[in-house]
Amino acid sequence: xxxxxxxxxxxxxxxxxxxxxxxxxxxxxxxxxxxxxxxxxxxxxxxxxxxxxxxxxxxxxxxxxxxxxxxxxxxxxxxxxxxxxxxxxxxxxxxxxxxxxxxxxxxxxxxxxxxxxxxxxxxxxxxxxxxxxxxxxxxxxxxxxxxxxxxxxxxxxxxxxxxxxxxxx
Length: 169
Known about the structure:
Layout: E1 13-20, H1 25-34, E2 41-42, E3 49-50, H2 52-66, E4 73-74, H3 76-92, H4 100-121, E5 126-133, H5 142-150, E6 156-157, E7 162-167
Antiparallel strand pairs: 1-5, 1-7, 2-3, 4-5, 6-7
């Protein structure tokens, strides 16, 4: 058996779901700028800062790194099915339904499903899903840390933009 003798890392990331009208990632950018106040972020611990332009640059970089943003742009109906399937599996499991983790998971997933339905009702047919983290996820560094540490429970529920998160810790 090997025992790790040096430091242990605790990497984390937060997955952000940006629901919007339009077809391309570029259609999201003006809407993000409209709500830039949500994205003026600064951490006290690591003294990093980011703003809406940093987030837009990260999303743009997906195309540079992958050749396209396609795998990150999803249909909200497919995402909703994934949340519903996860919720159904959890409800069918033998886990103690009075457990606080279960109750929190159940409530969180029901809220995400509600937001996805609302987005579809408001003709938001696209979603960009991306992870920001301290050293993991699609993006890290200062923007990753800011998004992870300060926005882990971000909820934006506007007529032209819905954003919610899933912690991937």
